[in-house]
Structures are given as C-alpha cells and as structure tokens.
From TrEMBL:
It holds the Pfam family FMN_dh. Its EC number is 1.1.3.15. It comes from the Eukaryota. CDD domains: alpha_hydroxyacid_oxid_FMN. The keyword Flavoprotein applies. This is (S)-2-hydroxy-acid oxidase. Its cofactor is FMN. Belongs to the FMN-dependent alpha-hydroxy acid dehydrogenase family. FMN binds at residues 79-81, 108, 129, 157, 245, 267, 300-304, 323-324. InterPro entries: Aldolase_TIM, Alpha-hydoxy_acid_DH_FMN, FMN-dep_DH, FMN_HAD, FMN_hydac_DH_AS.
Length: 380
C-alpha cells in the first residue's frame, strides 16, 4: 500500500495511479512546450522569505474575507472542468470539501454536476465561472441559473478566446464527458459513446478524428470576438459582482478597473493557454500596483505549498486559488482527498506565518519576501 501523502505534491502521483492516462494527462498538462507550466512553480522557488523574530506567534489567525464573505483561510478552489473524470461524485465532492473548510469554491461552467446539484449539496459560499459564448442566450441562462441558486459572484475567464494547444490531449484524442449544464442547449449535437470507463457524450458535430474534442468544442462555442465593451453586457444581465480571471499585465488591470469589474484573478489558466506567458507569481505585484486597492486581486498558478500562499499574499493577493492540487486530491481520495489538500496548505501556511513572525494575515507585508530581481539589485 502506498504511504499516506505528507504534502500536496505527493497527491499528483496518487492521482496518476488512480486515473486513466487520458484524464491524468488532461489534468496535468500545459500548453505546447509547457515552459510556463514549469515556470509557474519554479518562479516561487526564486522568492525567499524574510522572517521576523521575537514576535508573539502563540496564536495564528488565517481567516480573511473575499468580497465581504468570511473564509477560514485565504485558499480557495479554482474553477476546473469535469470533476467526474476524477471521481464519480464530481464537483459535489469538491464543493463539500470546500464547505468543510469554510472556503469558497469557484464552480467551472464546464462542470459534470449541474449548477443546481452543486448548490444543493452543501451551503458553502460559491462563485460561478463562465466563458462568453457566441450564443449569448446560453451565457445569460447559465449566469441567471447561478444567481437563482445563490452563487455569490460571476468569474468571467478572459484568457481563452481559443483553447491553448495541449499536445497530450491531441495525442490522446481527449473527449469530453456529459456536460450537464448544457443539456438543453446542445442536446442535439451530442451522442452517446461507450468507452472503457464510462459512458460519454461526445460533441459529435465537431468531433475530429485527429485531435482533442475539447479544442473543437471551444472553437465552436466560445466567442473569440469578446472584448472590453462586452463586460458591460455581462454586468447588465446580473446583480452579482463580476470578476475577470486571466489578467497578467498592468495594462489590462487598469482597463479592468475602468470597465468596472469587482475583482481580478491574476492567472495564466494554469499554463494551459499561452506558453511563454509569464509565471503568475512574477506579475502579481505589477497587477496589484496598477489596481491600487480599488478591487480585490486574487491569484492562481503553481500554488503547492503554504510558503507559496504566503509569498502570494506578501506580493498583494487577497487570497489564492488552487486548481490541480484539488483535482489530484479528488482523484486520489474523493472528498476526503480535497479536504486533506486544503488542510495541508492551511497547516503549512500557519507554520510559515509562525516562523516568519506574522500572527495574522494583515501582518504579512511586502518586506517579508525578496524576489530574485531585488537580490540581483542589492548585489550591484
Ligand atoms: C484540468 C484543468 C481544468 C481547468 N478548467 C478551467 C475552467 O473550466 N475554467 C477556468 O476558468 N479555468 C480552468 N482551469 C484553470 C484553473 O482555474 C486555474 O487557473 C489553474 O488550474 C491554476 O493553476 P494550478 O493548477 O497550478 O493551481 C483549469 C485548469 C486545469 C488544470
Ligand atoms: C476544455 C476547457 C474549456 C476547460 C478548461 O478551461 C481547461 O481545460 O483548461
């Protein structure tokens, strides 16, 4: 029997053992040469922590708020597609794990449990992530269903006018399972297809023999003409706060504030879209400086340790989101696995704060970290 994992990274191997290769490759993969995928994690390793001593750290408080909602720690669940490929309970298990930790899950529009099923599975605070569709009625329908079900914010992902080139998915001829949120809209285009592990519904109209079915699905449905002016439309169809996910430059951060978004997620989509996009931790501060505290800045990409969370907070994030770690936890051990992953990150963050002299999140300051750039500068 494999030893119990002692850190989040060890869940990846357990997930690999638990999953069919096609799904593991889909979850793990990044775009093209996967340079950004590697960088998302390595860039954290180039940041050091400057601990302060002789501060009372006998009590550590990890709690914070995001858009006014209190959460037990600044660690949220990023939207990731198709959790039933990882575990039969799918997003419901992930949502329950988030609820058990009193944190926020962002449900992907491409979930394998419906918006309604996830909403009724537990009473955690949830946000809902969307892409903009060519058919605006589908976007509007999803947003309004989420609002009716008590989701507290809409997260519009803006880094995916087209799907990035994920070569493992192309080789594996990756196919999408049943996407229950869409049944009414796309019913006619799907057909049943029996495979070794489950029954899938393929997006037949576009099914390609020689590539990733997801890529075809995205190309047909996502609106590649989406631009800044469309944020107004989204805001006009919902009373919920609108966050945009996928900003990595100060120019776009400024535009986002101008069009009135309620929050920004610094993200490169887990390095699955544009290869050679910067590691997100290397651009977080640039975005935070541009935003000037007007809206919360959230962060994702490469968080695997409590020290990574600490570094992102020191560079100005209000909270971080985890993508693959949650999916690996789910694949390895279902709801319990996701709970354990969050628990591990919380415990590590708590220890990091104690060893750095920060009893509360507000004590984590820019001076607690040193970037590679600053180290080089100080040697000149
Ligand atoms: C398997 C997988 C599926 C994803 N699906 C979505 C999605 O449906 N919508 C979205 O906005 N981002 C999606 N993302 C990106 C995540 O929200 C997040 O930005 C990324 O995973 C963070 O990096 P990390 O995996 O290193 O934590 C996905 C990422 C992965 C790994
Ligand atoms: C197939 C996708 C659109 C889901 C996604 O965002 C991803 O796989 O990164």
């Amino acid at each position: 029997m494999a030893a119990e994992p002692v850190n989040v990274n060890e869940f990846e191997e357990l997930a690999r053992l638990a999953l069919p290769k096609m799904y593991y490759d889909y979850y793990r993969g990044g775009a093209e040469d996967q340079r950004t995928l590697k960088e998302n994690m390595e860039a954290f390793q180039r940041i050091t922590i400057r601990p302060r001593v002789l501060i009372d750290v006998s009590r550590i408080d990890l709690s914070t708020t995001v858009l006014g909602y209190k959460i037990s720690a600044p660690i949220m669940i990023a939207p990731t597609a198709m959790h039933k490929l990882a575990h039969p309970e799918g997003e419901v298990a992930t949502a329950r794990a988030a609820a058990a930790h009193n944190t926020i899950m962002v449900l992907s529009y491409m979930s394998t449990c419906t918006i309604e099923e996830v909403a009724s599975s537990c009473n955690a605070v949830r946000f809902f992530q969307i892409y903009m569709y060519k058919r605006r009625d589908i976007t509007a329908n999803l947003v309004q269903r989420a609002e009716r079900c008590g989701y507290k914010a809409i997260v519009l992902t803006v880094d995916t006018p087209r799907l990035g080139r994920r070569e493992a998915d192309i080789k594996n001829k990756m196919i999408a399972p049943q996407l229950k949120n869409f049944e009414a809209s796309y019913q006619l285009k799907f057909h049943l297809c029996h495979r070794k592990h489950a029954i899938f519904i393929q997006y037949v109209e576009l099914l390609q023999d020689d590539g990733s079915n997801l890529e075809a699905f995205a190309k047909d449905t996502f609106d590649a003409s989406l631009s800044w002016k469309d944020i107004g439309w989204l805001r006009s169809i919902t009373n919920l706060p609108v966050l945009i996910k996928g900003v990595v430059t100060h120019e776009d951060a400024i535009k986002a504030i101008e069009v009135g978004v309620d929050g920004i997620v610094v993200s490169n989509h887990g390095a699955r879209q544009l290869d050679y996009a910067p590691a997100t931790i290397s651009v977080l501060e640039e975005v935070v400086d541009a935003v000037k505290g007007k809206v919360p800045v959230l962060f994702d990409g490469g968080i695997r340790r409590g020290t990574d969370v600490f570094k992102a907070l020191a560079l100005g994030a209000q909270a971080v989101l985890i993508g693959r770690p949650a999916v690996y936890g789910l694949a390895a051990k279902g709801e319990y696995g996701v709970k354990t992953v969050i628990e591990m990150l919380k415990n590590e963050l708590e220890l990091t704060m104690a060893l750095s002299g920060c009893p509360a999140l507000k004590d984590i300051s820019r001076n607690h970290v040193r970037t590679q750039h600053e180290r080089r500068h100080s040697m000149l």
